[in-house]
Design a protein that fits this description.
The chain is α/β, with parallel strands linked by helices. It is built from nine helices and seven strands; from the N terminus they run αααβαβαββαβαααββ. A seven-stranded mixed beta sheet has the order 3-2-1-4-5-7-6, with helices on both faces. α7 runs antiparallel to α8.
Amino acid sequence: MNYKVENVNPYNGEERKNEQVIRMFNEIAPKYDKLNGTLSLGLDNYWRCDAIRELRRYRPRHILDIATGTGDFALLAEKVLHPEKITAVDISEGMMAIGRQKVTARGLSHIITFEQQDSAALTFADESFDAVTTSFGVRNFENIDQSFREVLRVLRPGGIFLFLELTTPEKNPMKGLYNGYTKYVMPRLSALLHTERKASEYLPESIAAFPQGREMMLILKKNGFRNIRLRRYTLGVTTLYMAEK
């Protein structure tokens, strides 16, 4: 099945989405962390921290962090969960270069390693990981169903798939406030940080097109996951999804 968000591209309708996403994130990598914190009004770290705490009862030893970007979720997972190994993957080498610098600076290169991988075609063996995580990356997947099937394949039985994604509030007044923020404030903040115009337009367009709530839970169920639940943050601006193999 093709989902609307899979057809939202950063630049054009001719190139594959993956190719455009790689180009966009390689371009914004040096300013990504500042951009992320600014556009979320500093709330992104709170969302990540609360999400990671959900993994403590699973005690994962081997974690796969997909669409790791600059590695913040992987670093937080190491700090909170103390796993033996975290494999961080992304299609953007530019983003991972920043992540590697952070990991090296903290002396964690023996625990957190980076690999360039496509979420829809992972090279890992079946049942390799206790947990798979991603933060704000599913919107950028070229093929959500195939990526979810790959996640299920590499998870061990009883393993947990946990991901955060930006979503659109469903109820007023937050819905109206959010629409105003994405339409008027977000572009101005992006401009102040000298972000490429197409990249700043892609963010709200992909959020609006993303399947959320019950629709996303049904997608997870269709792809073989069980015990699926969600948690909304900041009145629906961000949603945490959790599903088990």
